[in-house]
Design brief:
Pfam families: NlpE (PF04170). Helices cover 22% and strands 38% of the residues. The protein is of the alpha+beta class. It has an eight-stranded antiparallel barrel with strand order 1-2-3-4-5-6-7-8. The protein starts with a helix and ends with a strand.
């Protein structure tokens, strides 16, 4: 009888410990299978507003000095100065950010698109694709304020 009790006690102990191991293994697998979603984009971040500057290429002068300011009220101002010329232009309008897509809608004109990146915005074409070619890296405005 003593042997049966000892065997039964050993079996209960093994089952009890094994059950915890199974629960622990399942818990670790759930943690390992969990997908971390990166919710960081310009829309949910508060750091895209401010002033961006840079020089865009131009066909008939050394470049266009650009100064884009995104204001907290959803409006923007864009100052463009043609280098080595006596030409400056100002544009104002509204902007919106969806994901990492910045859409500038001037008061009188067609929308322009930029991709919001870390401390910079990159000019996109009418199809919302990055400008390509040898001068592609020159279509970036860096955040200054």
């Amino acid at each position: 009888m003593k042997n049966k009790v000892m065997i039964l006690a050993a079996a209960i102990t093994l089952v009890a410990c094994g059950g915890n191991q199974q629960k622990k293994a399942v818990s670790e697998k759930v943690k390992a299978d969990a997908v971390k979603v990166d919710m960081h984009d310009a829309e949910s971040s508060l750091d895209y507003q401010g002033t961006y500057t840079g020089v865009f290429p131009a066909a008939d002068c050394p470049g266009i000095d650009m100064r884009l300011t995104l204001k907290k009220d959803g409006t923007y101002s864009l100052h463009m100065k043609y280098l080595d010329r006596d030409s400056e232009f100002d544009e104002k309008g509204a902007y919106k950010v969806k994901g990492n897509l910045l859409t500038l809608t001037p008061m009188d004109g067609q929308p322009e698109y930029y991709k919001v990146e870390e401390n910079q915005v990159r000019k996109l074409d009418a199809d919302k694709q990055p400008v390509t070619g040898a001068l592609a890296e020159n279509y970036v405005l860096k955040k200054t304020e």
